[in-house]
Amino acid sequence: MHWFIDDSNRRTLYYRGCREMIGLASGQEKTRTHRESDLGIPKYVCSACSSTDVYIDSARGEVICANCGLVLSDHSIDMGPEWRAFTADEQNARQRVGGPADWSKFDQGLTTIIGRQNVDAAGRKLSSTRRAQIHRLRKWQIRTKVHSSDKRNLAVAMTELHRISSQLSIPYSIRETSAVIYRKALRKRLTRGRTILGMVAASLYLACRVHQVPRPLEEVVEQIHITRKELSLCVRLILRYLNLKIPHSNPIEFVHRFGTELNLPGETKKKAIDILEKAREERLTIGKDPKGMAAAAIYVASILTGSRRTQLEIARTARVTEVTVRNRYKEMVDRLGISTM
Questions:
Q1: High-pLDDT (> 70) share of the chain, %
Q2: 3-class SS of residue 176
Q3: Residue 51: which residues within 8 A CB-CB, separation 6 or more?
Q4: For residue 104, is it left (φ>0), alpha (ψ between -120 and 50) or beta?
Q5: CA distance 126 to 119
Q6: pLDDT tens for residues 13-65?
Q7: Which DSSP string do the residues of 38-95 spell out, in sequence order?
Q8: Which of 6-10, 67-71, 78-82 has the highest mean pLDDT?
Q9: Alpha carbon of 79 to those of 39, 45, 59: distances in Å?
Q10: Whole-number mean pLDDT of the chain?
């Protein structure tokens, strides 16, 4: 081992077989290198051997070439916190981070709000001059939050998104996805000439499709004041220009929900799922409305298990016509050889 001082007054370590001395396998070096690039640490290239595999000695603050042992840097920046914690409670108490970004809020939840209490940090009332200054700051702060047309559009759209998702009992993850879809549509200028409500409802419907949560188009229309035709146009517009990969609806996804609304036992739901799986094997579901297929399977299963429901009840629950239920029922009985007598 040889120690020497180079022209830049930096200590350099040179040792033949440095890879064994450091004790890193090649796989570990690659993992460490990828982790450094993920953390935003600059990529080092050895000036002696042109290698990019480096080892970071956190105790000395040095970056060492893992191939030849040259010290590339002796002033590494510690990316961790400046405080120390010895217990989990101390660590949680000393962390200074806010909440995560919320895409369903027009400002992503990152802006500040000037309160209206007109008191300072100690609870004392502000003077008249200070109150006037805070009033002007509060007014300009509100104006700058929605200073552009896109911000105003997002402010209205996210409010409607929260209202519709609350009425439909949509979970938070789907609401976040729909907000991202709407932001992409706004960035592509797809909202021009169309109602904000229609684009929000279309984004929410597509988000439900992405997460494979059954929400029929008619159910979304019931919560907004636009027609089904207008909503369908908005859905097709987003699919055309955003290149979203939306999975096809599976009739099995509707069975549990329709069965619960019809107060059917678990045996009937299981029988309906088995019927739909057989129908898919026979390629009966191709080109058919998944709600109609699910309604017909539930009708057949209710007859076979003795928990019969009328075609009218099932059609109203599935939001399809009785003719659809009757036609799909006849196809299943004929092709699958099911006897309902």
A1: 87
A2: helix
A3: 45, 65, 66, 67, 68
A4: alpha
A5: 5
A6: 333 344 443 343 334 333 343 344 444 456 788 888 888 888 888 777 788 88
A7: HTTPPPP--TTT----EEEETTTTEEEETTT--EEES-----S-SS--SSHHHHHHH-
A8: 67-71
A9: 9, 21, 13
A10: 81
**How far apart are alpha carbons 29 and 264 in whole angstroms?**
59
Label the pairing between strands 54-57 and 62-65: antiparallel
Give domain limits for the chain: 2-73, 149-242, 252-336
Structure tokens at 215: 């929400």
Amino acid occupying residue 71: V
Percent helix, strand and coil across the chain, each to the nearest 5: 50, 5, 40
* 2: three-class secondary structure by DSSP: strand
- Its CATH architecture, for the domain 252-336, is Orthogonal Bundle (1.10)
- Residues 285/288/292/298 CA torsion (nearest 10 deg): -10
Locate 68 and state its tokens. Answer: 């030849």
Tens-place pLDDT, residues 189-217: 998 888 999 999 999 999 998 998 878 88
Fold for the domain defined by 149-242: Cyclin A; domain 1 (1.10.472)
Angle at 62 between CA 61 and CA 65, to 5 degrees: 155
Average pLDDT over residues 278-297: 89
Record the tokens describing residue 177, joined without a space.
């996805």
